[in-house]
Amino acid sequence: MSTPVEGESLFTPRNFAAFLLVSVIWGGTWLVIRDQIASVPASWSISYRFIVAALGMFALAAIRRERLSLAPGGMRWACLLGLFQFTLNFAFVYNAESYITSGLVAVMFALLVVPNAIFGRIFLGQQITGPFVVGSAIAAIGVALLFAHEWQSSPATLSEVLLGAGLTVCGILSASAANITQAMEGAKKQPFLALLAWSMAIGVVINSVFAWATSGPPQFDTRTSYSLGILYLGLAGSVVTFPLYYGLVRKIGAGQAAYSSVIVPVVAMVLSTLFEGFVWGPLPAAGAVITLSGMVIAMRGRASPPPRRATPEP
């Protein structure tokens, strides 16, 4: 049996630069998603996004001269990622933004670190500390305050706000399942870019079948902003960020990689304020501060990199 080796630190220059780039780009995707669902069914918009993303990922693998085929058993991992990350996660998130603001969905996603830690404990043997539990509880209180503000200020009914919250929670759980899948040894044995490319392609198939079954033939918005949004989400928001993010998951663990969800909502809330008319007041300000403070406490509770299992010798 191989001796476990320690994962890398988040704060090495290369890892931290990747972390910041992913956080800033993803912070801007939430508002773009809002425009994507304004006139086209969510599943078709997701399909178009990952058609662009899958082609871009295959092209990136070819440019780097990495192999495009998967190792034995690889298609199983690609199907799992295609289902959890590139189908369920995005379907829930896109539909959630039909009911609540993009910034609020992004703030809720700050709680991604919680199921990541729980699933990491169950499936990867990673430890959960007391400060992490306390910080997560504080963050949950902050999110509750933000939702109270959303209910008070939004024209949406309470049931619609709760539906948006429920969809977001489902998206968080799906994303966490994908993160843990990516961190497992079987997935880490696969060619990295090829696994992402095939996962995205499988996501396209699943989303397209679902879209046709529920919304009819393909629908497309001819506005320039819609097409540019597809390109931004497919290239910057997927081809650039997913290799960086899942690279971090493999290097530093799913729990630490999810720390990006503290920066992402800050960017998203700023954009929501500028373009969606989100109005700040004592309640949402307190909710945002409490949420982010709680996540910082939780992050510090998981400051040391989790152990990574070494690949057994043949």
TrEMBL record:
Q: Which subcellular locations apply to this protein?
A: Membrane
Q: Does the keyword Transmembrane apply?
A: yes
Q: Which InterPro entries match?
A: AA-Vitamin_Transporters (IPR050638), EamA_dom (IPR000620), EmrE-like (IPR037185)
Where is it predominantly found? membrane
Which ranges carry the EamA domain? 18-147, 176-298
Keyword check for Transcription regulation, yes or no: no
Keywords in alphabetical order:
Membrane, Transmembrane, Transmembrane helix
Highest taxon in the source lineage: Bacteria
Provide the topology term for how it sits in the membrane: Multi-pass membrane protein
What residue ranges are annotated as transmembrane? 16-33, 45-63, 100-119, 131-149, 161-180, 192-213, 225-245, 257-275, 281-299
Q: What is the similarity comment for this entry?
A: Belongs to the EamA transporter family.
- In its UniProt entry, what is this protein called? EamA family transporter
Record the organism. Answer: Qipengyuania pacifica
Q: What is the lineage of its organism?
A: Bacteria, Pseudomonadati, Pseudomonadota, Alphaproteobacteria, Sphingomonadales
